[in-house]
Write a structure and sequence with these properties.
Layout: H1 50-66, E1 79-82, H2 86-96, H3 105-112, H4 121-133, H5 135-138, H6 144-149, H7 165-171, E2 172-176, H8 183-192, H9 212-219, E3 226-228, E4 244-246, H10 248-261, E5 268-280, E6 288-296, E7 302-308, E8 311-313, E9 319-320, H11 325-328, E10 338-340, H12 341-352, E11 362-369, H13 372-383, E12 387-394, H14 414-423, H15 426-437, H16 444-453, E13 458-462, E14 466-472, E15 475-480, E16 487-489, E17 491-495, E18 499-500, H17 509-514, E19 519-520, E20 523-524, H18 550-557, E21 559-561, H19 567-570, H20 577-605
Parallel strand pairs: 1-2, 1-8, 2-5, 8-21, 10-17, 11-12, 11-17, 12-13
Antiparallel strand pairs: 3-4, 5-6, 6-7, 9-18, 14-15, 15-16, 19-20
């Protein structure tokens, strides 16, 4: 080293090889990449640097995410995971974790009251360190001695064996319309500029322990990103905390680390499922196979049929709001100025990228809604530099609530509340779901923020509805039922409530024909492990569950649902992060058990069979 403390490289009489110009390279910051644009170099290739390897990895990940898997009509995947949001992420991690948290929600809260019954904090801290060390440390199976010490979270002495990463990479396919783990989540949070979550810091997808995010923040010196809710003052037998929610930044950082540490960051393919067809596997009378048609790529240009033995449906909700009467009467040329909730985030993204057709300054926007999303949209437009005035209206009084559901559902009585819910018949459960979730709610701190902006660029009106809208001189003339004079707006954003229904999922149509299921108020009636339950009421000409051929009965046990469609089994927070953890415990345990049984059966039949699949 020289006196300036810089490293001097001695080349022993040889000059390091120079790279030729790369005018076509997509990333000029890297010395060389793995694409054709960088194929021309000198005859003597330099040793790869970390930057080169990182650039190659980015190219490979990009190609993997956007391309369809190689076509092989004879190949049968062991598992297809549809949806890479928080529900799919939680399931995949619990399939891989050697020592997962398989506690029921009731047991987790009971043990939370007595820290001696929880997993030792030392083990949680060690887990966080292992995540930073990478795949080998994270996926290393525990010794019997250490397993016995940390048995706190397993809920059973011997959980079904976990899947090996090489098995998953070979025989599991994950598809998501947005590509990438939790990509739609990240895009929406980014578009709406949401600074923090509406879920507590113990709600996340880590499969090891529900306290992991808290200790991750502490280990990284980012404890201040666990934001204390100053308006959450309840401290009683129904709720005792925690009182912090994670910032969007630390939540995303933690989940990106989980994907990397468990080796699944490049596992997701961009694609949309078109149909799911359960059928009988050739030459095996009792074995089913699912033939799933998938349109791969952002443009859905490559359509292929993938065969798989198991399917997990963790797609997000497909909400469809009923159109207000005034919208039905609106002139066609005005309709692109009225956006529904699912259209607003893409519009904001296009606008931020400079691709919106309405990129000029907007004089005035009307936001219609009554929940958190509508409030966030009103604040976003208010704080923007592209909109001069914002009016936010809702048909009822503002309903303040910290979370989507009451605090008691996250307190010590959660287990009892769930047990009471499961004791109800399915029709009573539907009523309980509506009663618990209620209508739109807004956290108290957001209501305070709305009040602080009232009278500046923002006007808030409660108990008001739109009665008529006219298209006049390229603007929307809006009439309200409060007796005020009609006003002109450039756009209307409809962030009103909408209904999720199984009929909205066209990809499930063929599945429901082959394997019918009971549906109550749009929710399928599933088994306890969230698999596809046989109907209790049979239409004329249909087979009852007991009369179905064996392959159909097995097929029902090998397709699972999480998220909004599992609400009759998981309860009112099925769609949320807590519901993702709750559902992933049930589904991952069932999949691990089913694969273990398949391996055992296969080993008895074919002791010399060894092709690298799950059964070997």
């Amino acid at each position: 080293r020289t006196n300036t403390n810089k490293l001097t490289i001695v080349t022993m009489g040889k000059q390091p090889p120079q790279l030729s110009p790369r005018p076509g390279c997509s990333d000029h910051s890297a010395p060389i990449c793995d694409s054709s644009c960088c194929a021309t170099t000198t005859s003597s290739q330099p040793v790869e640097s970390k930057k080169i390897r990182s650039h190659k990895k980015d190219h490979a990940a990009n190609n993997a995410a956007t391309s369809a898997p190689e076509e092989d009509e004879t190949e049968i995947k062991e598992l297809l995971l549809i949806g890479a949001g928080c529900h799919g992420h939680a399931i995949m991690l619990r399939l891989l974790e050697p020592d997962p948290d398989f506690l029921s929600d009731k047991e987790r809260h009971i043990r939370g009251e007595n820290t001696d019954r929880m997993r030792p904090i030392h083990d949680v801290v060690k887990h966080i360190k292992n995540l930073s060390r990478g795949q080998r440390a994270t996926l290393r199976s525990k010794s019997r001695k250490s397993k016995k010490k940390s048995q706190g979270n397993s809920a059973s002495p011997d959980p079904p064996p976990h899947l090996k990463l090489n098995e998953v990479q070979k025989s599991v396919l994950v598809v998501d319309a947005n590509g990438g783990w939790m990509q739609a989540w990240k895009d929406n949070f980014d578009s709406l500029r949401i600074p923090k979550l509406r879920s507590l810091m113990n709600a996340h997808t880590d499969p090891f322990d529900h306290r992991s995010l808290e200790y991750y923040a502490e280990a990284k010196g980012r404890g201040d990103e666990l934001v204390t809710l100053t308006t959450l003052n309840q401290r009683d037998k129904n709720f005792k905390g925690p009182y912090q929610v994670p910032s969007t930044s630390i939540f995303n950082s933690f989940h990106d680390l989980l994907s990397k540490a468990y080796g699944i960051e490049d596992l997701v393919r961009t694609g949309t499922v078109v149909s799911i067809n359960p059928t009988q596997e050739d030459g095996k009378a009792d074995e089913p196979v699912f033939e799933v048609q998938i349109a791969f790529g952002k443009q859905q240009s490559i359509v292929r049929t993938v065969k798989t033995r198991r399917v997990v449906c963790s797609m997000g909700p497909i909400f469809r709001a009923s159109e207000p009467r005034w919208l039905q009467d609106l002139a066609p040329q005005a309709c692109d100025r009225v956006l529904h909730a699912h259209q607003i985030c893409p519009y904001l993204k296009r606008r931020s990228e400079g691709g919106s057709s309405t990129d000029d300054m907007l004089q005035k926007i009307l936001v219609v809604g009554g929940g958190l999303t509508s409030a966030q949209l009103a604040l976003l437009a208010t704080e923007s530099n592209w909109c001069k005035e914002v009016t936010f209206i809702q048909r009822s009084k503002m309903n303040p609530r910290h979370f989507d559901i009451g605090n008691e559902w996250m307190g010590p009585k959660r287990g009892k509340l769930l047990e009471d819910f499961w004791c109800l018949d399915v029709n009573e459960r539907v009523k309980k779901l509506k009663e618990t979730r209620g209508g739109g709610t807004i956290p108290p701190e957001v209501i305070l923020e709305l009040a602080a902006n009232q009278g500046k660029k923002l006007e808030v009106k409660e108990e008001v509805e739109v009665t008529k809208v006219q298209w006049v001189d390229d603007r929307l003339r809006v009439f309200l039922d409060d007796g005020s004079e009609p006003d002109f707006y450039d756009m209307i954003w409809l962030a009103t409530g909408a209904q999720n229904h199984i009929d909205h999922y066209s990809a499930l149509s063929h599945l429901r024909q082959v394997l019918p299921v009971d549906v109550v108020n749009g929710f399928p009636v599933l088994n306890t492990d969230l698999s596809w339950r046989a109907p209790t009421t049979v239409e004329e000409g249909e087979e009852s569950g007991d009369d179905e051929p064996t392959w159909k009965q097995v097929a029902r046990k090998r397709i699972w649902f999480t998220g909004a469609l599992a609400a009759l089994q998981l309860g009112p927070d099925a769609l949320n992060l807590i519901g993702a953890r709750h559902g992933s415990v049930r589904v991952a345990r069932a999949i691990r058990q089913d694969i273990a049984q398949s391996k055992a059966a296969a080993s008895l039949k074919e002791d010399d069979h060894d092709c690298g699949c799950f059964h070997c």
